[in-house]
Design a protein that fits this description.
By secondary structure, the protein is mainly alpha-helical. It has two domains: about 40 residues; about 80 residues, Cytochrome c-like domain (Cytochrome Bc1 Complex, Chain D, domain 2), CATH 1.10.760.10. Helices cover about 70% and strands about 0% of the residues.
Amino acid sequence: MTNFLKGLIALAVLIPPLMFFVNWRVDSAVKRAVEESKITQPIAVGELFAAKCALCHGANADGSETYPRLNKYSKDELVAKLKMHKSVAGTNPIMKMQAGSLNDAQIEAIAGFISTMKPVESAKESAGSKAKKEAARLDNSGGKD
């Protein structure tokens, strides 16, 4: 066998493990870069709210029977609440996880975003207020239409 063929065989044996190692290193570097970009890459505050808050607190932060209404608080109150949940003092595990994944700039942005939302009158509240208005109208008119 010639030296040329021996060299080709040696390359054929050595190249696959070498390529595996290089690909593994590149894949690891790419994965790390993607993970870091998720943390530092700015995203629109509306997308941040949708990803972190809307599922529990509602699309307009009106809350529900289980989760509190957020759109009644000022920006400063929301910042304080989020920072409390993020800190050691936070006792709600879901909020600790959600707030814990936000940096200070994101907390400021999301608090400002929520504080601009106006409560939406629910169907139950709407029916109740219509009934009250009708009762008041009838009282004022003496029951006459």
